[in-house]
Amino acid sequence: MGINYTVIVIVVVYLIAMLLIGWYSYTKISSNEDFMVAGRRLGPVLMAGTLAATEIGGGSSLGVVEKAYGDWGMGASWYIITMAITFGFLTFLGSKFRQSMVKTVPEYFRRRYGRSSGAITSVIMIIPLIGLTATQFIASSTIISVMLGVDYKIAVILVSVVVTIYAVMGGLWSVTLTDFVQVFLIVFGMMIAIPFALKTVGGWDNVVATLPKEKFYMVNSSINSKTIISLIVMYLASFTVGQEAVSRYYAARDDKAAVQGSLLAGLINIIYAFIPTVLGLITLALVTNGTIPKDIIMKDGPKYALPLLAMHTMPSVVIGLLFAGIISATMSSADSDLLGAGSIFGNDIYKIYIKPDATSSEVMRTTKITMLVIGFLAMLVALMNKGSLIKLLTLSFTLRAAGAFFPYVMGHYWKKASAVGTVASLLLGSFITLYVEINKITIFGLKEPIIPGLAVSFLAFFILTFLFPNKKNSTELAGEEEF
């Protein structure tokens, strides 16, 4: 199949627009607070757009199509529905997050529990962000490589450079504005592809007639209630402490905007959940009835199912919009992950341990340099990765969440929550999660490593807090001048 220049033009225009937004945002940045939390001026609509776009990434587009095409069928929609459920839970915590007036999660740990907790949290937050960024680079590069017919590695380099440049230019304000555009491209670009795919397959009735009935069950042999519960637990723990998500709550203009933005983000996820799922089922039906040869889909793995479906069934303009939408999904997550890693290093490592007297501009410059380094490391991971997008994504989620969840949430409510309990929770929760993942241990039929990690974290945090309670008996945060 030859190069489609209409598709290329649409996507190139989109990429240029993202860079221009990054440049515009650069002109509006005057302080480190502007860069990290957008000056705390996000209303509910902007917050909802950036929060939804951040979490709808490669796993929620290419990954869900891959799962629907594979064993999960219609149940693949749970991967996104459980995100919406999580945003519903976070609605009750959003105002507390906003009231803390911090810029990063490790800053909260440091000011609530002391320097040791802040340092440990910084490390366990930064490392997974490399994996999360790489996941989005992989998904974007998949689309670029299919669209241009270029080598996957060249596409990785292109995507990495574009995303890193516009994220570094404007910080969270740039990320928010690009996300606001991208979330509409994500939903519209994917949605507009469905009628054309259905026309090719002969309508939804033909999809139903072609595939086994089990493919249309929301719960089946491949995704059951245990898997769904595991996803909810994973998202709740990860989104609650993930810098790329929580920074949106920090950036809300007030408590009300934080709550409303969280609810709207959940609504966007519910609307979007079935779009990539349906596209995956249509692709499977087209392969099953012989319209698209299976060897084309499997040549580079099922993660290429969606772009190949588009190339075989849709007109050029629709392909361009679809590809722009998918790239939007992945880039909107990658830029947030980059900013999260840079913010943590600049705000919680450089400012605290390397140069305590650093000015706001010096911290911002260090944050940008860190983003460049993380972007390069994520690019290397993307170049080497051959595994499942969702597997890499879930491992990154769980690694940073297991030990931090209980100290972070309970720190806002429980006056006696202590530094000793927090350090034990962070170390033991993270260790158990890695141990279970490496050794492939299943506990009570649950395969997700975050479950035992959270259980051990819970016990360590509460037992040691009762033994060594916070002597201040307060949830108030220490001032930055104390560090």
UniProtKB/TrEMBL annotation:
GO biological process terms on file: carboxylic acid transport
One MF term in the entry's GO annotations: transmembrane transporter activity
Keywords from the UniProt entry: Cell membrane, Membrane, Transmembrane, Transmembrane helix, Transport
One GO cellular component, as annotated: plasma membrane
Stretches that traverse the bilayer: 6-24, 76-97, 118-148, 154-173, 180-198, 263-287, 308-329, 369-385, 417-438, 450-468
Membrane-topology annotation of the record: Multi-pass membrane protein
PROSITE patterns linked: NA_SOLUT_SYMP_1 (PS00456), NA_SOLUT_SYMP_3 (PS50283)
UniProt subcellular location: Membrane
Family affiliation: Belongs to the sodium:solute symporter (SSF) (TC 2.A.21) family.
Protein name: Na+/solute symporter
Native source species: Sebaldella termitidis (strain ATCC 33386 / NCTC 11300)
